């Protein structure tokens, strides 16, 4: 007997869309208690399913190694007991957040007696397209649930087995709380045509798309999407070490910003050092990086302090390495650092290290990025570290949502107007 033909992409995706719309209608009216119960159940399912998750991840890791993926990409893909536990705790942290749905952000009464309130409401159905990190399946699903949205998730092919195993835990949590399993759906195929269909042919079902991944993915989504996009562009992040920086602090921040995890979007990709402190600060900072196994690509001044520094090209200043590589340049003070970031940066995350409060405030006010820090590592560019539980991504857009996209950023608002018979003259 011949096997039944696989359903075509349109049939599969439209079914996901219809089910998501129906689930979104239920979620929009779900109580905070229902949503939190589902999240608690998800966390329990993740812990109880840990061994199955790790087995599924091992399949993905073996395939990734066979494909020759970089060490940084393998790190993004890998799960272990600590990362599974971190996912479960992240879901519990989201449950502990205030529910944004129904929050009144403004309230006033007009002279004619009309009572007007601006009330937060879910966006509806959110399509989320991401690459290799399987924990995004968990973070995205949980954040969408807490904010009252249905989610259609499309992860990368590299993490397909891991994402399916995580998704099963999320569905189990939903159903145990009496909410529809279709509130969080995973596109069941790795066929790239499914992404194209989601972007161009599901306007009847999807209200907004969130891409999380590399520059090529985000560019494709922004080009092809026929619904609004909350964009997460690459993280060309900078650390600027000012002439008034404490050297010990600067060394610790730069090393952490670059090397704590090189494959995350908040990893520093460019080091800028004030020319006024080159004699004291540049050599030890560069030596720390090189000794820790980081490749440094520098300008002439940086090459002069260590023979191991490789020459930087113009392209290096634009590059998100997501690896143990950093570009380094000497600049003439804070204004030159700001100008460099404006030209080469991606409006993601930038840090200044200085003991001079006026210089710090100048940098924080003039650098136009989603996140700017003073005396702290760029690796804090993370929704969890901001107390937001988790985030779907770091938005580099300038409208609706900017920076970590958490539960509040996944809502919109409507105006609720209460009258007593008023008619307009």
Order of helices and strands: HHHHHEEEHEHEHEHEHEHEHEEHEHEEEE
* Helix content, binned percent: 40-55%
The number of distinct β-strands equals 16
| Class based on secondary structure composition and strand pairing | alpha/beta
Can you characterise this structure?
The protein is 42% helix and 19% strand. With 425 residues, it is of the alpha/beta class. The longest helix has 19 residues, at 9-27. The model is unreliable at 1-5 (pLDDT under 50).
Describe the secondary-structure layout.
Blueprint: H1 9-27, H2 32-48, H3 50-67, H4 71-77, H5 81-96, E1 104-109, E2 115-122, E3 125-130, H6 135-146, E4 150-154, H7 160-176, E5 184-186, H8 193-201, E6 208-212, H9 215-224, E7 237-241, H10 247-259, E8 268-274, H11 278-291, E9 295-298, H12 300-305, E10 310-311, E11 325-331, H13 334-344, E12 349-353, H14 357-366, E13 371-374, E14 394-395, E15 403-404, E16 411-418
Parallel strand pairs: 3-4, 3-6, 4-5, 7-8, 7-12, 8-11, 9-10, 9-11, 12-13
Antiparallel strand pairs: 1-2, 2-16, 14-15
Helix pairs in contact: 2-5, 2-7, 3-7, 5-6, 6-7, 10-11
């Amino acid at each position: 007997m011949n096997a039944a033909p696989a359903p075509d992409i349109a049939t599969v995706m439209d079914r996901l869309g219809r089910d998501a719309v129906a689930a979104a209608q239920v979620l929009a009216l779900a109580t905070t208690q229902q949503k939190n119960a589902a999240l608690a159940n998800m966390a329990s399912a993740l812990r109880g399913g840990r061994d199955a998750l790790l087995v599924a991840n091992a399949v993905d890791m073996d395939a990734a190694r066979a494909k020759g993926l970089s060490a940084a990409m393998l790190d993004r893909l890998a799960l272990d007991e600590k990362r599974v536990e971190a996912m479960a705790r992240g879901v519990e942290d989201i449950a502990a957040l205030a529910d944004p749905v129904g929050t009144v952000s403004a309230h006033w009464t007009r002279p004619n007696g009309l009572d007007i309130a601006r009330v937060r409401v879910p966006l509806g159905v959110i399509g989320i397209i991401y690459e290799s990190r399987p924990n995004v399946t968990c973070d995205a699903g949980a954040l969408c649930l807490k904010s009252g949205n249905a989610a259609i998730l499309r992860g990368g092919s590299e993490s397909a087995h891991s994402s399916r195993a995580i998704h099963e835990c999320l569905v189990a949590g939903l159903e145990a709380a009496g909410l529809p399993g279709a509130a969080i759906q995973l596109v069941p195929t790795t066929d790239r045509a499914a992404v194209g269909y989601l972007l161009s042919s599901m306007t009847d079902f999807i209200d907004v798309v969130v891409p999380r991944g590399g520059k090529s993915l985000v560019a494709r989504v922004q080009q092809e999407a026929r619904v609004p996009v909350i964009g997460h562009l690459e993280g060309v992040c900078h650390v600027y070490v000012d002439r008034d920086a404490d050297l010990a602090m600067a060394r610790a921040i730069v090393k952490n910003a670059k090397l704590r995890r090189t494959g995350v979007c908040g990893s520093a990709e460019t080091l800028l050092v004030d020319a006024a402190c080159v004699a004291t600060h540049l050599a030890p900072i560069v030596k720390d990086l090189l000794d820790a196994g980081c490749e440094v690509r520098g300008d002439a001044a940086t090459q002069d302090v260590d023979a191991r520094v490789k020459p930087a090209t113009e392209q290096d200043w634009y590059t998100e390495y997501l690896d143990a590589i950093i570009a380094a340049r000497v600049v003439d003070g804070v204004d030159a650092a700001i100008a460099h970031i404006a030209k080469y940066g991606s409006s993601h995350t930038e840090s200044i290290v200085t003991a001079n409060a006026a210089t710090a405030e100048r940098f924080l006010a003039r650098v136009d990025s989603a996140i700017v820090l003073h005396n702290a590592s760029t690796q804090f560019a993370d929704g969890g570290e901001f107390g937001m539980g988790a985030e779907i991504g770091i938005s580099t857009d300038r409208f609706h949502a900017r920076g970590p996209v958490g539960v509040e950023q996944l809502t919109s608002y409507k105006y609720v107007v209460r009258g007593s018979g008023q008619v307009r003259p």
